[in-house]
Specification:
Isoleucyl-tRNA Synthetase, Domain 1, alpha/beta, 15 strands, binds adenosine monophosphate, five-stranded parallel sheet, 15 helices, about 45% helix, binds zinc ion
Amino acid sequence: MDLYFYNTLTRKKEIFKPLHEREVRMYSCGPTVYKDATIGNMRTYIMNDIIRRVLKYNGYKVKHAMNITDVGHLVSDGDEGEDKMVKSSREMHKTPTEIANYYTDLFFQDLEKLNIETPEIICKATEHISDMIKYVQKLIDNGYAYITSTAVYFDVSKLDKYGILSGIKLDEQKAGARVDVDTEKRNPYDFALWIKAPENHIMKWESPWGLSYPGWHIECSAMGQKYLGEVFDIHTGGIDLIPTHHENEIAQSKGACGKNPARFWIHGEYLLIDGGKMSKSLGNVYLLKDIEAKGYDPLAYRLFTYSSGYRTKLNFTWDAMPASQKSLEKLKQGYQNHLLGSDDISDEEIAKYEEDFHKAINDDLNMPLAMSVVWEIIKNPKKSKKLADLLLKFDTVLALKIDEPIKQKVSEIPSEIIELAEKRKQARENKNWEESDKIRDEIKSKGYIIKDSKEGYEIVKQ
Ligand code: AMP
Ligand code: ZN
């Protein structure tokens, strides 16, 4: 069956065929390990994982590389500001290596909890300094880079097309609002490949350009090429990486070997929180451990991300989690029900389900549609081990551990909350709406939500 991915480069869905017959080579931009990864970041890593799993479902072998950015990612995502690692190290009174090790460990713990497979190759930027130096030297030798008093810059005017991924037009942008800090830059869009370290900078290496450190974009170009070759099949990341990081990776690769490094560029849309951006000031930067602390299985969050396609913004609210947790429990129960069943299911019926599921995942990872096939099977009144086996096969893509008992059940509702709910019920029966609303707010302040229905009410943990 044909496999389609939306390619950011061509802005359309295209049939995917790998360069090497049965092996797909894929690169994903990994975490900058200076702080906790959020559930937003995890949405992107779940997307990467689904791509891997769908490729394998289609019979491909996967060679997947993911970097760990432990130097060079500046606060601005461009050439301005402090290195994120250095900033975190100063604020936390730890060495950059201690910070990197600490957050890298936490990151992999989160991946495991979400049943995200570890890519075949994990590469740390600080362990590839000499590869990056060689890459920068090549760009200088090829005439694409120049040296200033503070950095080695890539000269975007040397490319016939800069901006093919994001569609920016240099001519229109020239007079634009970009403020350039470095007056030695030849063009506003030139970006740093290598940065000369100020006197007291703690992360620096010997290089032909003195004690210095790499730019963020060169890391991915050098490591991608080292492990996957000059041109590989798929490059992934979150949508925010398109205009700077990925655009610059393409520029670097064109300068070094005249080629775009990846044939398919796949980008995941953002996870929103309560309809907006996650931010420290709003106090809504949520981590996987917050999901666990409220009693939800991390895989309920994974399942939640299947409620929309990866190219659509997805809005997270705590109100959505009880339903997700319940759905996960229902899926697992549904699997068990089929496992014990012995009803007759025709081969045609199995083949139809299989085809529908395969079509959905092959259509640019249409997980909402794939899940609708799964629910049809769960709801099938005929119970059969054949259907349980089919669900297990689908779970190689879904990764919900459908055959394992639920890890965390939403904890029992404390008696204090039940008493309040009963008091509220009484107030409602007496049509004392003011009192009823007051109690509902009190219940909410204690971390529970009360939902009214025809049958009565339901209490769920927030
Ligand atoms: P970072 O560690 O900040 O470099 O980000 C790691 C990955 O998470 C990148 O691919 C980002 O594009 C992605 N990302 C960051 N924030 C979000 C979000 N709110 N939703 C989805 N992906 C995100
Ligand atoms: Zn990258």
